[in-house]
User: Which sequence fits this backbone?
C-alpha cells in the first residue's frame, strides 16, 4: 500500500471492539475529564510520517473502512466491513507512537510528521471518515491530536491489524 522505495507515509492499526471509551480532555481544577464513547465496531489508530500529503487520505479512508474484519451478526459467520455492520461505531485515535523505531533501549520518532502538518492531516482524515460513515449510518467519534489520552477498550479477541500506506 505504500511506495516501497520511500517507505510508508502513514500507518494505521485496526482493532475490533465491543465498546471503547477515550478521554479527549483531561480533568481540570473545576471541571471533569471529557470522554467520547463508541459501541461495537472498530478503533482506528493513525500516525502520519514525513512526506505524507492529503493525496493519501482517500485511499486510507476507503481501505480502513471497507476491510472485511468484523463478524456479521448472521449465522453465516461471514466477515463484513464496519460500514456493513448494522449499528456499528468507529473511534479514531491519533497515535504518534506508531512511528517509533527502537534505537538501543529507547524509542525515537524522527520519521514522524511535524505536529502542525500532522494535526492538519488528522483533521482532514477524520472529516473524510465522517463523510463515509454518515452515508452508512455508522457512528464516528475521534480523539484529540497532540494530547495524551486515556483509552478503555473491551474486545472479543485481539483482531488487531497493522496497515502501512
Assistant:
Amino acid at each position: 500500500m505504500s511506495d516501497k522505495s520511500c517507505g510508508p507515509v502513514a500507518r494505521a492499526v485496526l482493532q475490533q471492539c465491543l465498546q471503547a471509551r477515550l478521554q479527549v480532555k483531561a480533568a481540570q481544577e473545576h471541571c471533569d475529564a471529557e470522554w467520547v464513547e463508541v459501541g461495537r465496531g472498530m478503533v482506528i489508530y493513525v500516525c502520519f510520517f514525513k512526506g505524507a500529503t492529503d493525496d493519501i487520505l482517500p485511499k486510507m479512508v476507503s481501505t480502513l473502512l471497507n476491510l472485511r474484519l468484523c463478524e456479521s451478526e448472521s449465522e453465516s459467520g461471514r466477515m463484513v466491513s464496519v460500514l456493513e455492520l448494522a449499528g456499528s461505531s468507529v473511534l479514531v485515535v491519533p497515535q504518534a507512537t506508531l512511528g517509533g523505531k527502537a534505537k538501543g533501549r529507547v524509542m525515537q520518532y524522527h520519521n514522524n510528521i511535524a505536529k502542525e502538518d500532522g494535526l492538519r492531516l488528522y483533521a482532514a482524515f477524520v472529516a473524510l471518515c465522517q463523510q463515509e460513515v454518515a452515508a452508512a449510518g455508522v457512528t464516528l467519534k475521534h480523539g484529540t491530536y497532540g494530547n495524551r489520552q486515556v483509552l478503555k477498550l473491551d474486545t472479543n479477541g485481539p483482531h488487531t491489524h497493522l496497515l502501512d500506506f
